User: What shape does this take?
Amino acid sequence: MPSMITFAEYRINPQVGTVAGPDGNVHIEPKNMDVLLVLLQAKGEVVSREEILRQVWTNQEVSDDVINTAISKIRKALSEVGNSSQYLQTVPRKGYQLVYPQLTNVTAIHANRQNNFEPGLKNQEGSQIHSNPSLNLKRQPITEEDELLTPQPLSIIKLNEKSTEDVSPIPSPKSARKHLLWSGFAIFVVVAGLLIAYTKWQQQNLENQLLALHKQQKLSYSSFVIQAKRRNELVAMITRRLSIERTQQFEKFFAKYYPLMNKEEQFVFAQIRGITTGTLFSANTTMLKLIDNNPQLMSEFPLMDVLHKHLAFWVSKYHNVFIPRSDMCLLYVGVEDGVPYPSELDKQITKWLRDRGLL
Assistant: This one.
């Protein structure tokens, strides 16, 4: 059986010149294998280009390109059969290194150092692994790790099987349960905090929207009171001048007598129309948007749905009836339309805000 060198996820067979990994195996040319063995021997240390030339191409006149080619082919081989070729690093102006090589059952690279014997790498049975007399491996300095090993001629040096990497201890079942309980408690606290914050935000948002709605209700009501005063003035002016009595609904009455109005009456008519197109339209559309954008208002106040229908009908009538007609100065939506204004809702909202100290 040929000796194997394990490096990371790779298994290297110097005798047959192959590198095997999770994705298969690939053949490496002898000189390229020699370069790989020199780097493996360094055990993570940087090896200079001069040292590689000295050990692999001893007493041979070659260009630096041979090293570039060898490194490129080694990287390609590692990437073809393994997860990454990044183990082989180029250190600018210094050389090359194999980053954190994980070596087990490394062939006796330093064997027979004292006897100045360097026939190449052999397996435990003493058979030739890689025949390359020019590969001068004995000249490498003996490291502290080598001293802990027991070098034997033509034998396999085994590294300490204990990994040099830190290994996290496996937690006991009791520790795992405790960790799980603490994790669950932390998640519960976070979720509970989020729920409390969300509930508080909902309450604050409800208060803000009701305050805004209450403000628009007051604006709409005050505008209606002013408009009603001008309306009564205009009715009195028309009936007195024409010696008639009003028997029709206000909208129809003003539309009927609009062509007969004098300049003074037309002026009051324009004032009434301006209130409709101004503050009343603004307040009613704002209240409608507030209800549309905040469904929780309907959940808190059942009459809010009645107000929504009233406002939606008013806005629709404003755009489709009032604006196209110049003989209308006011716009009413009420019982006769099936959507009366819920005046009781105004009292409910006022009480709700006062109970919370917001008014």
